Automatic annotation (TrEMBL), chains A, B:
It comes from Shimia aestuarii. Belongs to the esterase D family. It catalyses: S-formylglutathione + H2O = formate + glutathione + H(+). This is S-formylglutathione hydrolase. One of its GO terms (cellular component) is cytosol. Its EC number is 3.1.2.12. Keywords: Hydrolase, Serine esterase. InterPro entries: AB_hydrolase_fold (IPR029058), Esterase-like (IPR000801), S-formylglutathione_hydrol (IPR014186). Gene3D superfamilies: alpha/beta hydrolase.
Length: 277, 277
């Protein structure tokens, strides 16, 4: 592990670290905020999965999450959104390839050897965090923004018992039916749409649901709302009678100004689940 | 005026605007957060002056100030740190020219025609804000970071009655005696050091002081502390018996992680002065 940087923040430490990912077959960089309490023993962990074009850094500097994590005594990890570096495939489009891993394991060329973000988030990075940092892996929750909201929702539903609560800011909620989704699922997983369903939170919500609390915020003026299709997820939540809070926030758009405005609510929501029992 | 962007944030609006500056003889861009209360009438104003290399954008996205301004019902303006654009002089160094205006009116070539950041902050931008936005100009306070802390302190002391309170994060506190200062003051104001004293907050503190409350935070692990010379300002404050709170924050550095950690305190400090009487 290489320590890229460590800055004191809100009584804790905002670190940036680089490690070798066995899933992605390359070095990966992530941010980790550890609150002051981590000096005395393991603390709960909140995952924050970022959206298209982001690295580990965007939310770390713009979402204003650390202050609330410090207040609650929980750690937050900010993974990158794709493999990167020499020999890693890419595409000219902002929404495919590097910065756009979509939290799946790619089976198609040229993505297959490195683009295994599902395994990276589900297996590789958790193992590494458990070994290297004072984190209580029995207390994990997950959230994300846009493509990261998609990742948070699909991982939470596919890994029952892993995460105590899940939330999303403006998630890509129905990728099998929108251009933010169909393009990437086809590129990474191939033409057989049956393989896509495991990566659509609206489909998963209908089929499985989530055994825990769920919080979704979407801005009513989100400029990408037609690509996100929150109505599909809202419909699935309602049909399933999934315990959830789904909020349309008047006048807000897709930006980090929207995310940071409601971050306090999301961290408090997860803290309640993380400290239950 | 050109509206570059407007995003809803914390119940208010984070705008970015471009206007023609009479002082700097070029177009200037600034950020302005207006809280929800501004829809009903004029609100108090907090100035945030940024440091070397920054534009209007850095603090706007990284300092986490809007949430506290929203809570207090005050506006925050984020000016740029220098003139920019075609025909505006620059230097290869990060600490001279564009991004490094140092809040002075340059008298020397090649800076003299455009680099009038003192007048821009003291006269030009206030007039513009008063004309265009619902701001109560009888209620203003000022803060800043690093070079912006220098600007906030010198403007506050040089313009008695203008600002009700002043604060700084890791200010360049004694620029006539440090390499962050001597280089720029010589370039902008010439070799006669007598002209520099009006832009040294430690000198101004000895000579005039500030008629209001003052708050200073400096990280004990600030990597630039030898260039900032906070000890000179602390000495001057003490000798003058200036009412002030001066804090060395253990383990913090010069970054926005430091600034954002203590932003809540600074905004609350200014709000108390802005709402007095």
């Amino acid at each position: 592990m290489e320590t890229v940087s460590e800055n004191r923040a809100f009584g804790g430490v905002q670190g940036v670290y680089k490690h070798h990912s066995h899933s992605c077959h390359c070095d990966m960089t992530f941010g980790l905020f550890l609150p002051e309490e981590a000096r005395d023993g393991p603390v709960p962990l909140l995952w924050y999965l970022s959206g298209l074009t982001c690295t580990h850094e965007n939310a770390m500097v713009k979402a204003g999450a650390q202050q609330w994590a410090a207040e609650q005594g929980i750690a937050i990890v900010f993974p990158d959104t794709s493999p990167r570096g020499e020999g890693v495939a890419d595409d000219e489009a902002y929404d495919l390839g590097q910065g756009a891993g979509f939290y799946v394991n790619a089976t198609q060329k040229p993505w297959a050897p490195h683009f295994n973000m599902w395994d990276y988030i589900a297996e590789d990075l958790p193992s590494f965090l458990q070994e290297e940092f004072p984190i209580d892996m029995s207390r994990q929750s997950i959230c994300g923004h846009s493509m990261g909201g998609h990742g948070a929702l699909t991982l939470a539903m596919a890994l029952p018992g892993r995460f105590r609560s899940v939330s999303a800011f403006a998630p890509i909620a129905n990728p099998t039916a929108a251009e933010w989704g169909r393009k990437q699922l086809r590129a990474y997983l191939g033409d057989d749409e049956a393989a896509w369903a495991a990566h659509d939170s609206s489909v998963l919500m209908r089929d499985k649901g989530f055994d825990g609390p769920l919080l979704i915020d979407v801005g009513s003026d989100d400029q990408f709302i037609d690509l996100l299709r929150p109505e599909a997820l809202a419909g699935a939540i309602t049909e399933r009678r999934q315990p959830a809070t789904f909020r349309l926030q008047k006048g807000y758009d897709h930006s980090y100004f929207f995310v940071s405005t409601f971050m306090e609510d999301h961290v408090a929501f997860h803290a309640e689940a993380l400290y239950a029992d």
